[in-house]
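Researcher: I've been going back and forth with a colleague about how Asparagine--tRNA ligase might be arranged in three dimensions. Neither of us has a model we trust, so I'd like an independent prediction. The organism is Peribacillus deserti, in case that matters for your notes. Sequence below.
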Amino acid sequence: MSQGYNKHNNVSLCRFLEGNKLVKTMIKDVSKYAGEEVTIGGWLANKRSSGKIAFLQLRDGSGFIQGVVVKEDVGEEVFAKAKGLTQESSLYVIGTVQKDERSPFGYELVVKDLEVIQESKDYPITPKAHGTEFLMDNRHLWLRSKRQHAVMQIRNEIIRATYEFFNENGFSKVDPPILTGSAPEGTSELFATKYFDEDAYLSQSGQLYMEAAAMALGKVFSFGPTFRAEKSKTRRHLIEFWMIEPEMAFYDFEDNLEVQEQYVSHIVQSVLKNCTLQLNTLGRDVSKLENIKAPFPRITYDDAIKFLHEKGFDDIQWGDDFGAPHETAIAESYDKPVFITHYPTGIKPFYMQPDPNRSDVVLCADLIAPEGYGEIIGGSQRIHDYDFLKQRIEEHQLDLDAYKWYLELRQYGSVPHSGFGLGLERTVAWISGVEHVRETIPFPRLLNRLYP
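Model: Here is an independent structure prediction for Asparagine--tRNA ligase. You can compare it with whatever you and your colleague have in mind.
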């Protein structure tokens, strides 16, 4: 039986609710009931009192609102309950919804009555400052804070807008497997496991399976978890993260870029429209987001190398992949995301289609977010010729048997096709203005963190 909760309390709560048969609503919907009395179930995020008035900062998962308790209006008993509330205690509150121009939310609740559901004692995350490791150890509780709530709401809006965009543009949702028998990009940064008598891996991308789906359904997208056993501690990396991976039959390289910039424009504008309060909570400079509309600028890998040399990056040579400082330097020249196109064949995966005019580069692009957030999308036109794809698999010393089914897609009605993958957490970080991706996923998996 939980602390501070018993059968008697349960009976009193039932009587409390029965005796106060008012509209039960959530904080996000209180504007519908201005001037009316409502019941809200929630938690106490914080409080302060001044003589005969108590101010309760209430949250219910949908938002935050201030509850004002005036002793003269509610009486000794209710006022004593309000003053005795502890941080994160759960309660029902009855009050009148009142407009308040001083509130970021626009409304407050003039409390008439309240009933404690469960008293929280010694809540570990107090209003004072805490270190990152402490907060990460208490991630299951840290999620309740106003800042983390805002980030999660923005994440949710990006997910909602993602489904909206692809559904409205004729895509079908397909779910690729999480357990696979091979590495889509031929890397060794995989989590291995036993699949009965076989070796299996946690998926690092659903792309190859999405190509198969595109040959069946035309335009498809997936949204699911991916795993990279990459021993990186940068602010851009997670071990487990979520990817949105569209794949499109009969789409060439240019078609692919257009879909990407339209999609990114859509999710940014959706967040601006529907998450104003959350962006304000985070102190996000929304002027930097208002300009994020298609089309996006493009720069070739060749020109990017020249640009970096002009900026003093003598360490980078043609044929090298870009690191975070290089991507940031390039992005600083633009106020929108920028495509870096036509990377060298040697540093990209085996399945990318070479430029028909230059065999040393492929028809691919990385989309680099502004403000130092790095790559958020990688995409390309895929090789659709059977013999050439087989040759590329052999050149990369990959197991032909493991890729037999993938090659068969090029045997039976092969067509030009393209696709891309967007990393959700980096995108959330950029749009919300959060510095580290660990705050953009509910329970981050980092190099040295598997708890909670």
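Researcher: What would you highlight for our discussion?
Model: I'd start with this: The two ends are 23 Å apart (CA to CA). After that, consider the following. The longest helix spans residues 146-168.
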